[in-house]
Design goal:
The structure is a single chain. The chain has about 260 residues and is of the alpha/beta class. The chain has two domains: about 120 residues, 3-Layer(aba) Sandwich (Rossmann fold), CATH 3.40.50.2300; about 120 residues, Winged helix-like DNA-binding domain superfamily/Winged helix DNA-binding domain (Arc Repressor Mutant, subunit A, Orthogonal Bundle), CATH 1.10.10.10. It is elongated and about 55 Å long. The chain starts with 8 loop residues before the first strand and ends with a strand.
């Protein structure tokens, strides 16, 4: 995608390091964005409200309140793509960021080439607004937590079962025994894909195409969203209950017997 395709789009860079903020601003401006910069969490939220951006880059370690809190506050206000920028390398930090409503993450030091590639991939396909949310909750006027997915094929009505895990396809409701499991739309689609062929080992690249659609190459998205899904289902490292990580291959449902 040429940078001209992004002309007239707006971005908010929320970053307290002036050098990194300037780097991000220059990179996004070269991609055709009109960029606003905020240096703390509170002003970042205010700029998102004021500018209604298409993209937000969000540092995790912000003054006033941190990037995770910013993400939680802006999600009910905007369906902008959110990229977390983090100096923390631990997977759990990235998963928490995605659960808060981010669409992707970048680790510091930021690679401008990687940033541009991620942004281009996001805007290659328009965001699809989800029509229902896991847990049976009523959709608010402004969706609180959206992810870029391709148009899904019509889902069959009914319920999928795997051990004591059940998925109501029509209501987008997931139960683990008597416990309701609240999933994001992306996590829900990942789970449904696995459960429809529970004995199959799904590679990350195939899951990426199934859930995000064609034109995506960022298999790390599968890893981080799958990690979040497994944690919500109660899977722990070395103690998986439902989804198995087949080392070097991909993922499959554990035998329910």
């Amino acid at each position: 995608m040429e940078s001209g395709d992004l002309t007239l789009r707006r971005a908010v860079v929320i970053e307290d390091d002036a050098d990194i903020a300037a780097l991000l601003e220059t990179a996004l401006t070269s991609q055709g964005f009109e960029v606003t910069v905020a240096s703390d969490g509170r002003s970042g939220v205010e700029q998102v409200i004021a500018t209604d951006p298409d993209l937000v880059t969000l540092d995790v370690g912000l003054p006033v309140f941190d990037g995770l809190e910013v993400c939680r506050r802006i999600r009910p206000l905007t369906d902008a793509y959110v990229i977390m920028v983090t100096a923390m390398a631990e997977e759990i930090d990235r998963l928490i960021g995605l659960e808060a409503g981010a669409d992707d993450y970048l680790a510091k030091p930021v690679s401008i080439r990687e940033l541009k590639a991620r942004v281009n991939a996001m805007f290659r396909r328009p965001r699809q607004l989800a029509t229902s949310y896991a847990g049976g909750a009523t959709q608010p006027e402004t969706p609180p937590h959206l992810h870029a997915v391709h148009d899904p094929a019509p889902s069959p009505r009914g319920t999928l079962h795997h051990g004591d895990l059940s998925v109501d396809l029509e209501a987008h409701r997931v139960l683990c025994g008597d416990r309701r499991v609240d999933l994001t739309p992306t996590e829900f689609r990942l789970l449904v894909t696995l459960m429809r062929a529970p004995s199959r080992v799904w590679s990350r690249s195939v899951l990426l195409q199934e859930v995000w659609g064609s034109g995506w190459e960022e298999t790390h998205l599968v890893e981080v969203h799958m990690g979040n899904l497994r944690r919500k289902l109660g899977d722990r490292r070395g103690e998986a209950r439902f989804v198995e990580n087949v080392r070097g291959v991909g993922y499959r449902m554990l035998d329910a017997s």
